[in-house]
Amino acid sequence: MLLLKSRLHDLRIVAYYLGKICIVVGIAMLIPLTLALFLSEFSVVYDFVIGFSVSLIIGYTLLFLYRTEEDLNWMQGMVTVAVSWLIAAFLGAIPLYLSGHFACFLDAFFEAISGFTTTGLSLTQDLDHLSYGHNLWRHLTQFLGGQGIVVFAISFFFSGASGVFRLYVGEARDERVLPNVINTARFIWRVSLSFFLLGSLMLFAVGIIIGLSPGQSLFDAVTLFMAAFDTGGFAPHSQSILYYHSLPYSMALVFLMVLGALNFKLHYELWHNNRGELFRNTEIRTFLSSVFFLFFFMAISLTAGGVYSSANGLMYAGFFQIISAHTGTGFQTISSLQFPVWGDFPLGILIIAMGLGGGLCSTTGGVKMLRVSIIAKALSQDINRMLLPGSTILVKKIHHIKDLVLNERMIRVSLIITFCYILMYIVGALAGAGLGYPLELAFFESTSAAANVGLSVGITSPEMPGLLKLIYIIQMWTGRLEFIAVFILFGFLVAFIKGK
Amino acid sequence: MMRIPRERLPGFKHNLLGILWELFLAGLIIVIGAVISLVVSFFAK
Fold first, then answer.
1. Among residues A219, A366, A500, B14, which is most buried (max CB within 10 A)?
2. B26/A258 Cβ within 8 A
């Protein structure tokens, strides 16, 4: 029995809120447009004028046609969020496509959704000659998508209403930092903008020290900050971070990737001087343990396989890639073709790191640390229960901001989301293998897309089959929204078609 | 009447302290990586 009931009226409300999102995306295009004007990249200005105009025309048409005072209910909120990300990617793809650096509009759409979902897989051709304006836009999509397109809209363009909370939850934010969701959204932006100033300055300084020109150092610092803190993974150069050949520069990026992988609720606690949370939080402990063990085994494997023998090589390539994978960023200090040379074991470790992800309510993708720790605790609870006398009452707690008693609902939700992610990793891998790629490489690339990471073993390229591009697009979109909003959208469409 | 506490965003001083603690955590992770790299490469020789 289908529980969802959709009516034409629901579509009208969804369309009205989508109109607002279109306007927000259009306004965001003014930033690269301004840069292009400043740098006299006039052909680029036209591309953004067209993108901006299309966004505003669609946005205001929807607002005008479907004006409503009605608040969103849960179903409408989820559907709005799910469609918002596709529309944002469609609009975001327009200036990219007009740049002439994409073989077709599907490639530009792939790039835009990869940006908004903070994945970082790229189909840009001749990236090293892409204009500054377009390159800034690629990275800006990651900055907007990392915080959440809807969170961005809520922060600046929505007034207080309960429907706003439904949009916020639909965007895979399980936790509110503050009781008021608009203040939560504003706090998320406050953290991001504070680190934007600090992180860009740090990267600029390191860039100057390693010999970049001031102009390039500034542009790379701003764009790489957006990609690192929002765990996106786009880079202004085709060689990604390998371009810089610098251990200090890569370690500066490690700082930003780790900060981006932290739960915004943890940011809030630390910013309220609750430093004890840093040492007691289950997400932090799980993340530290995971990084420790994964890198330890990877380092042994890489040295035993003769790939790297120096500490410098292990840090620059091995450790950087572990952090890049685990935080869901996708920066590379080695070329895509080098990954298979590492061997199956290190690749397997990177797949695990990508699949696990970072903190809940952060900019990362994947299963996420809180769910991993809940499942691990539940497992240990079951083992203890088997070993102890039947009459024993066993209570397990996890510490996340406060002590939480492990309950059935928490475990069930964590298991369902984890199962969905694993299923999606496998389906994408089988699709890649079916289209002719080696299974282990297809599994790597599929996990990278679904967990919004962006590391690539070379499968993602303009020449790959269109069907695989579509599959990766669906994986990136579904993975970013953590399934629920997408499932509700499909349920809504089925119910609508059936006329219920 | 029940008094609802007012939501407060942290002030500048707390922001700065919070950022320092977060940088400390990121630094700790880098130190872990460096120690593992040194130990493993040492025994590999």
1. A366
2. yes
Q: Are strands A402-405 and A397-400 parallel, antiparallel or unpaired?
A: antiparallel
**Count of A–B CB contacts within 8 Å?**
104
Instruction: Give the pLDDT confidence of A109-150 residue by residue, as tens digits.
Output: 999 999 999 999 999 999 999 999 999 999 999 999 988 877
Q: Is residue B18 part of a domain?
A: yes
Q: Is residue B24 part of a domain?
A: yes
> A190-196 contacts: CB < 8 A, separation 24 or more?
A190/B9, A191/A264, A191/A267, A191/A271, A192/A143, A192/A146, A192/A147, A192/A229, A192/A230, A194/B15, A194/B19, A195/A225, A195/A229, A195/A256, A195/A259, A195/B19, A196/A225, A196/A226, A196/A229
What digits encode the pLDDT tens for the residues A352-392? Answer: 999 999 998 888 889 999 999 999 999 998 898 888 887 77
Reading the block at residue A429, the tokens are 């891998």
Per the structure, the count of domains in chain B is: 1
Per CB-CB distance under 8 Å, the chain B contacts of A195 are 19
- pTM of the entire predicted model: 0.93
Q: Is residue B34 in a domain?
A: yes
CA distance A240 to A334: 8
Query: What is the value of ipTM here, to two decimals?
Result: 0.90
Min Cα–Cα distance to chain A from B24, Å: 9
